[in-house]
């Protein structure tokens, strides 16, 4: 069960659950501090972050994905299922975590917000990502890219949708939710401006990453080539690696990026074979072991710094 989480100065405190979840009380999963009367169940980290910013101290936000767990692989236990059942609001993204989809369909009794309907998703083809690593294993051109949270403006749109849903469940604080989402949008528009400025003038625009999670950053003029496909567990073929090696040499790419929640072996091997750097680019699907004290904004800024360094962007 999730415990107490703090994001951007907002304390998110686990609350006692009713029904079958009371059986888990001996696990010591719940924090002692009081929280808001209502509960929001958030499927994974970016949704949790946005929900926490909008809710502030009026609602308790419970994450279904424990830090360090790859969200694609999430399986829900009795406790997480009870969180979904008892929540006043569930925010998830249909198609991203099948186990969550099934649990929402079968047990959710409160308001349900599907992030895939709340924001304007685009297809992999619209990113201009054609045929990168493992032949885009797990998706085809035209299939929707779920990783919208890497676009700060789409995260702001999610905040607006959350404010509407929270006002539906808790009308007494509707004005506060509107104020909070406006502040979130201000922060995200500032971040968007930093990305646009930081990546405006770079020596190269191609970035080699572990898997197809970064396409929404192509809005800033970048092109992403993945070692694996959509799934972090995909294995590239020798032909994929050969093609990427040729691309890296031709375009003078300096860095191969691994990620926080999956092993760096593929990136390290490719970079080592070519004598270039291996570094980390965080897809922000979830918090990792090294994310203590970090939040969405700080991690996105770390990504920007890494991209500027790798691509030789002018200060």
Keywords:
315 residues; alpha/beta; 4-stranded parallel β-sheet; two-stranded antiparallel ribbon; 38% helix
Task: Report the helical percentage.
Answer: 25-40%
Q: What does the oligomeric state look like here? A: single chain
Q: Which regions contain 5 or more consecutive residues with pLDDT less than 50?
A: 1-35, 129-141
**End-to-end distance, in Å?**
44 Å
Average pLDDT figure: 84
Which structural class do you get from the secondary structure elements?
alpha/beta
Main β-sheet, spatial strand arrangement = 4-3-5-6
Q: Evaluate the radius of gyration.
A: 20 Å
Separate helix tally: 10
User: Which percent range describes the beta-strand content?
Assistant: 5-15%
Number of strands: 10
Instruction: Specify the overall morphology.
Output: globular
Largest sheet: 4 strands, parallel
Order of helices and strands: EEEHEHEHEHHHHEEHEHEH
Describe the structure.
This protein has 315 residues and is of the alpha/beta class. Helices cover 38% and strands 13% of the residues. It contains ten helices and ten strands. The chain has a four-stranded parallel β-sheet with strand order 4-3-5-6, sandwiched between helices. A two-stranded antiparallel ribbon has the order 1-2. Helix 9 (265-274) links the parallel strand 9 (255-258) and strand 10. The chain is globular and about 60 Å long. The protein starts with a strand and ends with a helix.
Give the topology, please.
Elements: E1 5-7, E2 10-12, E3 38-42, H1 45-55, E4 59-63, H2 78-86, E5 89-92, H3 98-107, E6 111-114, H4 115-118, H5 133-136, H6 152-169, H7 174-198, E7 206-209, E8 223-226, H8 238-251, E9 255-258, H9 265-274, E10 277-280, H10 296-311
Parallel strand pairs: 3-4, 3-5, 5-6, 7-8, 9-10
Antiparallel strand pairs: 1-2
Helix pairs in contact: 1-6, 1-7, 6-7, 7-10
